[in-house]
Write the structure tokens for this entry.
Amino acid sequence: MKELIQTLVETNSPSGYENAVRQLIRQKIEPWVNEIKVDALGNLLGIRKNPNAPKIMLVAHMDEIGIMATHVDSKGFIRFIPLGGVYPHHCVGGRVRFLNGVAGVIGVEKLSNPQELPSLEKMFIDVGAVDAKSCPIKIGDVAAFERPFLDLGKRWVSKAMDDRIGVAVLIETLQSLHQSAFEIYAVFSVQEEVGVRGATTAAFGIAPDLGLAIDVTATGDTPKGNKMEVELGKGPAIKIRDAGMLADPRIIKWMIQTAEKASLPYQREILEFGGTDGRAVQLSRSGVPTGVLSIPCRYVHAPSEMVDRDDVLNAVRLLTELLNNPPNLEFSA
Amino acid sequence: MKTTEIKSILQQLTSVPALSGYESRLHETLNALWQPYLDQTSISRVGSYHALRYGKAAEPRPRLMLTGHMDTIGLMVNRIQDGFLRLTAIGGIDARLLPGQMVTVHGKREIPAMIVQPPPFLLPKEFQTNPVPLQHLWADCGLSADQARQQIQIGDLVTFDQAFLELNNDIVASPGLDNRASLAALTVCIQELTKHQPLWDSWFVASVQEEETQVGALSSAFQIQPHLAIVIDVTFANSPGSPPHKTYPLGKGITLGWGAAVHPYLYNSFKDLADQLEIPYKLEPMPRRSGTDADSLQTVAQGIPTMVIGIPLRYMHSAVEMVSLKDIQRVARLMVEFIDRLDVDYLEKIKWDETN
Amino acid sequence: MGRNQLNQTLPAFGAAQIRLLEKLSNAQAVSGDEGEVRKIVLENIRPNVDELRVDALGNVLAIKRGSADSRLKVMIAAHMDEVGFMLTAEEDKEEGYYRFEVIGGIDPRYIVGKVIKMSHQELYGVIGSKPIHLTPPEERKNLLGIDSLRIDFGSTSNKAKIGDRATFSTRFQKIGDLLRGKALDDRLGVAILIELLKYSYPHLDILAAFTVQEEVGLRGAKVAAYALNPQVGLVLDCTPAYDLPLEVEDSEPPPENSRYNTKLGRGPAIYLADRETLSDPRWIAHLVQTAEELQLPYQFRQPGGGGTDAGSIHLQRSGIPSISLSIPGRYIHTPAALASFVDWKNTFHLAYSALQRLTANIFTQER
């Protein structure tokens, strides 16, 4: 699975420009699904047919955060905007790679106060051009952060773990799953980082009976970090809420009971910021009972996002169990 | 219906806490209050309560949707430390109201607790004399670390522990009156409607999660595909410190919403009807958004002509929300009379002026 | 074919269109109250479309079918509404002062000392402030916020009531090559869409949406796109031109304005990305190719914030590949915007030509 993850995270595909990673995923899932579709916004759908079984939409987003060029000045320096949640403190001195292969470094204007955190407007990308004419980048060109995969043994680090790790979990589950209680719509969604857009249209098209997003969540286990209980290595997390949704209590219960029955580790997750594709699925059509399986991840949206190997493997196991044990969707008083 | 009866309905409705996302506890109460008077009830895919009263016009009949949200604001256990609980808000809560608030923690059992602020010297400097944000408040259940871990889990709900309070002149106070006051109005409307034979199908909806994502209103409207929708919600009653130009007197009448979320023809219908029935009302300007389920509902599918009716309420999103039973009575009466008067050709009339 | 020959095939666009724009700009249509513009739109397009209706929110939806057997369904949207004001409370019956709120994004620094006109009636009011003589210099540094301002009708016998809407009272003018008026955002787009409907597009079904409530959250376009159920979407809007000089600092050479959004006179602005939409790359390529082959000027609107109806349209149903094409306008959402007639005309010609050359093939490749 490590090789799969490495290939996925080292493929550059920021929001709206998911072509490369889509080709890669398509090739990985082709043997394991009955049908493949690409929709109007570029979502990749792998369908595992099981007529008469309830339809489940499993969604992991294949886009990653990145930048888009907005201006090339007379000296060939490039101004940019973020695609998704790019934070200034992760940028200075960082490197990016445009989709046409051109690499660049992020520089910053001289600060009147060197202690201040510069905004992205004060930054620029230097691709080594000497003037505007020789600059191989034009307005609208898109780049991803450049940072190779790093194996620290029990922990894996890279850019774009958010959410290629979810993509990897979904691919791995499709490969290892022999049978299922559902008709499975495995969706590799686009444009999650700019507002859960791909999942919105995919969910409408599929009209699933229930939904499950697979995405990363933050942790509270780093020095003076987030105040939350999720820790790296304590198992996949079952989302109770985040800033975008309240997970359906019936789905939460199903996930917890399934994990306990299979003796798999899990954590209960409340994330006070952020959101996932789960929101888009829940709000679709007449409403969809929806939950989120989270992979704990440190330093989310930094170019070095860290996950725990066992959490990843246990997420695959839990997802596999879930797909074999359908939930009870009765409301309890 | 007399205000004493309305009070007892409201008491029943507020006695069950049902925070956003966890509204199913209220289904049973609604079964008791609504089911006997209606033709059909069901639960939507995300937990909203649907109840249908068939009209007597020939099929296919037009459909009216009347909706009030059933969820209330509250708190949720976020972290557990040495037996003390950190909380996160469900819906919008001003943390300045919380110190000293009695609450119930819905763990393995119902556990009484109190929200406390640490003494100043245990707080970060900036909060020593200023209001303490929620992240720095605790809920204290008086449990040991082990007991707390055993009985309470991350995600357990925390509700205000404050009994229903009767004040003078048909005024009552309670947690959860936002929006159980509107559900009380819908209940009265449903029960009174048994004396009438409306032509349209009337769908009564208690929607979920208005305080969070409005998923209830969105999904129910998509499922029911109503031709008209009326959203009942509470609005701001004037109170000390609230701006007089954005608030309405308590117990002196209802509000009729006006703005982009409201279809002007519907507004005029309600206005004319209120005038005719001598129900006191004020126009409530909603220049941009209504701040209610109407914002979501209006733009579902091909769009739905929508109306917003408000019940003035003081101290919104606190444990001592206050409403007048008379205003509830007025909203109920206005709805009954509106439904009763709906002609089958109302939809022809509601077209925009310039169309023809 | 040379440029002149190419341009000869393009439809005329001149005085008649400016007269239409003048009418549209002077009409009042604050979000939620678009009737005046809707009326003009209905009158003008009725002879040119196959189907016409007004929906539950007040959008004008029109269908113009092509003649070919296989046709692409293209939604074209332009919003009818504009930013403005609503009276929210009567402050002083004796004097005729009203509190108000703004609808849509208006910088409060632009409204002090201006005249407003109430919608649907010939009633004017002013938004005044304390005389400079009575305002100590220190106080002049403070923002005059909406809460401190009133609309003053100067009379108790006015016919205004709470809930009524108003706009700036600016009247449209053509000044040389420049168009100046209120609500050019997006009456420039509305006028182009009206014009586009005069011509036939054999390979397309044109699904035209003159939308409501764009300025309060792209609300009309959402239900319009759902109802029309197009295959692709094109939005015609007006986007800010911030092409002003920078403050000259000590630096040498003088600093370059790198955040101009668009530049007046540089041609139609093709959107790449804003807060709501990542433009469909197939659309971008098609517009660029059309402009280059016809030698029409164009510019890219700088990626950044803001949003158009495309934000709502592309997310409807199973997804609708969309893009925005905008006319640059300086000072939009103020008493008057300035736009270039030539940009406006070129935007029309680019939209017209791009539609004539549009085929389903463009969208069969994966995004």
About this structure: Chain B has two domains: 3-72+175-355, 74-160.
